[in-house]
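Notebook entry, structure prediction.
Reason for the run: the old model in the group folder had no record of what sequence produced it. Starting over properly, with the input documented here first.
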Amino acid sequence: MKPLTRALVIVNLVILLGYTLWYVRAKETILAEGELLLLQLAPVDPRSLIQGDYMVLRYAATNEYRTDTIPKTGYLIVRPDADGVAQPVRLQASVDELDPNEYAINYTRDDWRMNIGAESFFFEEGKGETFSSAKYGGLRVDKKGNSLLVGLYDGDRRALR
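New structure, fully documented this time:
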């Protein structure tokens, strides 16, 4: 291998490793410091024969908006109600100008539906019955609108395991 080629390979590997570490650290920060929001789930299908047991998640909050009338990307602004369940307030283009007790969740949309980035939940084979009673999806959300699905919750807002 020529010295220049070897140097380019090493530089690319260092850049790739650096990006991977930065990405993992960003997700770990959301898990550690993000605010937990519960979003009500719309009906789901808890089984995939090819991929194993998982649920395709739909959120009631995203069903409030027709996809042909909203921008392709933006932020869904939610506010927890008295029970701690996040309710949709409005859509906006940035995370600026949030009222106290409001949270932004980054969304994208396609021709059919609005997605908030946590659209499936995989679980151990044979646990479908446990998770089929899920009423809420628990998301950790940071100040920039990034979110991570951390679990499913029952009607009493207890984590399902």
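Summary: Residues 77 and 90 are 5 Å apart (CA to CA).
The old model has been moved to the deprecated folder.
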